[in-house]
Amino acid sequence: FRGAGVVRDAGLLEGNVYMALELGQGSLADRLQRPERMPADAVREVALHISEALTYLHAQGVAHRDVKPGNVFRVGDGWKLGDFGLVRGLEGSIVQSSGVKGTPLYLAPEVLQGKAGPPSDVWALGVMVHECLTGAFPFTGATEFELMSKIAAGEPQIVPGLPSEFEVFVRRCLERSREKRWTANEALVCLGSGGRSEEHTSELQS
After folding, report:
1. Residue 99 and residue 115: Cα distance in Å, rounded?
2. Which of 55, 96, 139, 176 has its CA 20 to 30 A from that of 112?
3. Is 66 a catalytic residue?
4. Which of 195, 189, 137 is nearest to 168 (CA)?
5. Does residue 53 carry a pLDDT above 60?
6. Over the stretch 27-51, which tens digit does the pLDDT of each residue have?
7. Residues whose CB is less than 8 angstroms from the CB of residue 174 and which lie 6 or more positions away in sequence, other chains included
8. What angle do CA 103, 107, 110 make, to 5 degrees?
9. In sequence order, what DSSP letters do the residues of 42-66 get, joined into one string?
10. What's the pLDDT tens digit per position in 115-162?
């Protein structure tokens, strides 16, 4: 999302403003359609780049509210977060909204109460990384109502045996309590340290 530039036409249409956007080579959702599972190094790259994007976004006082593979795009040699249609500024630390906004499989528990915010983006990041690694979701349901009910009251079903560098990352991103959940910056620092242990959390700044 950082590569766009503004171009002002100096010719016939002088005074008009155009956006010069980067050309993506497909989305993460496209990659997940392939039969082979993503290797851990490739998932780490996605997690690192999107954690960085969310850290920047949250520092500007806004929440994305729809982090999912379909909104993550391969651009050049990296991954970028796109589709800012649900982005909202924060009132304090949350976005108060009427009705549930976002994609059900990636919704955090507090979103069902109309309280989206940076922690909700981090939850969605955790779901997305879990999906990339395992092909499974922490919550599923035969109907959207069943799915929402499980998210509202249940514990995430994390597939055992995640690569060691992701064990802490996924669990801390999927903390039910948004107060205990990692910030995007904490997730970013964890990845920078190789995700080795939780001892790094005491050094992190949100």
Report:
1. 10
2. 55
3. yes
4. 195
5. yes
6. 999 999 999 999 999 999 999 999 9
7. 123, 126, 127, 130, 138, 156, 158, 181
8. 140
9. HHHHHHHHHHHHHHHHHHTTEE---
10. 888 999 999 999 999 999 999 999 999 999 999 999 999 999 999 999
